[in-house]
Amino acid sequence: MGTNSTRVIATARRRIAVARFGRLYVNALLGCFGIALCCIPLLWWYPKQTEAILIGALIAPPIVAAMIAGLFFRRPTAPDGARVVDRAAGTKDLFLSLTELERANAGFGPLVVASAEQASANANVVKALPFDPRRGLVKGVTAALIVVGATLLAPMWDPFGKITQAKAAEEKKEELAQRREAQTSRLEELKREAPEAENSQQIERLTKELSNFFRKTDPTQVKKNARQLAMQQKKFSDEWRARAEKKLAEKMRREQGTQKIGRGQQDEMLRKMSDELKKGKTESLQKELSEMKKELERLTRDKDSMDPVEKEQTLQKLRRRMERMEQLARESGAQQVADMMKKASEQLSAQAEQGMNSEELAALAEEMELSGMEFESLAQSIRDLESLEESLKAMQMAKKLNSAEKLDGGSCEGCSSMADYAKRYAEMLAKMGKGNGNGGDGDGMGGRGQGRGGIAAEDDSVETDYTPENSKSALLAGKLLLSLKTKGEGRENAAVVNYDEQIEAVRDGVSEAILKEQVPPGYHDDIRKYFDTLSVPTGANTDVGYE
């Protein structure tokens, strides 16, 4: 076989192979896309497999079609190529005869080879076997677009409602994962703050600094002590004011946003936990939360083996406990815990109706631990406020001792807390006659009465945070006593009755006025005592005449 004829036949065979494989691939691709189109509605019955179905409908057909085309593909033979060349050159089986020479072993072989070599120059194989891939490409792309459109439109049509249910379950799962992640982050944050400690790190630092100052005081350094006391008092007053303002804001929010529940409607356990929390203690509360966590863990572990009646009773008890904790949290200002308990109670109700979910029960158990830490943090903030008030009272008494040159750090060597300093300073003031008594003979700067002291040891050069200002407060009720008027002859003792009523109203508003005006704790007792001593002067003329 000559060189030119061999090359032409090989070219024809390659074009036949490409055309043959292309036809097989396009036909297989159309068939696979048709099957994929029929499989897309399966997502209406199996919405959880939606992603797998859609990916399979788009990716699988090209791959499967290639495998099918390769499976059924047959390589073209030399006679197949020779027939194409004969058609291209216009020869009648010349090239086909050329391919048969080896088997026929005919004597005219050289003549056939020579003729084929001459005719191969005029053979246009491309024209004889035209190959245009655009038709097959258009068919494949059209089928792919139809499937893509179906994959986009099918999920929008939910004839059985299962897609909606699957979406809701997926959203719930994502929400649960986000909630657990937030709980873990908050729990780690609370653990770093160490709410189980007596006081927060900030208050411990301030108290330690003040205690060190008290131990180093020198009774002869009055001005220096006064400056240091003013600085310390400013720090503690600012800290107390910030916390008291937050406490007042929480109180107003609770009064405006929640309905108060009378104590008569609370059970004994709730009353006990509330009273302990007000004192900065959480023993009963932590015990209750620990028991709730254990019940939730037991439900998670034994939900499949538990008796249905027992399971329902356990869920009901847990819901009642959570409602109790929600009430306690709202009354104490722990809004985050209250919302957490409300949502947990709603989830338990849903669990009873829809079935138990282990992941949700585990998340609820984690919420009990987080709630315990939140309550512990709240109790610590209450203890912090008490420590600040105790420190401010101690500094108030220290100022009096410093004025009398009696503030000596060595006088309280065994003092380890602000309560110890306050107790010791109170004893020292009592010996000096500077206590809060009802009067009598004192050494000056004492209670009411005839004193024997001279001018108080004061230093006007000391800078303080005192700001003179006039503000309207609950004490305005007292000013109205001077404008009582009437016409005609009044009832006997009418002014006394009216006076007592208004004094009682003022007394009721004193505590709230103190908090709203952010009066430092050192002045609380004196203010309350003043209003407690208000009364109608003995022998006063209470008759009301004509105007």
Kindly describe this structure.
- The chain has 547 residues and is mostly helical.
- It has 19 helices and no strands.
- Helix 12 packs antiparallel against helix 15 (358-403), helix 13 (308-332) runs antiparallel to helix 14 (335-354) and helix 18 (494-516) runs antiparallel to helix 19.
- The chain is elongated and about 150 Å long.
Question: Which features characterize this protein?
Answer:
single chain; 547 residues; mainly alpha; 3 domains; 19 helices; 69% helix; elongated; disordered C terminus
Short characterization:
It is built from 19 helices and no strands. By secondary structure, it is mostly helical. Residues 437-454 have a biased composition (Gly residues).
Shape: elongated
Sequence of secondary-structure elements? HHHHHHHHHHHHHHHHHHH
Query: How many E-type strands?
Result: 0
Distance between the termini: 146 Å
Q: Please, how many helices?
A: 19
The domain tally reads 3
Rg (C-alpha, Å): 48 Å
Give the class from helix and strand content and strand pairing. Answer: mainly alpha
Question: What's the mean pLDDT score?
Answer: 75
Largest sheet: none
Strand percentage, roughly? under 5%
| Helical content class | 55-70%
Low-confidence stretches: 255-266, 435-442, 471-484, 536-547
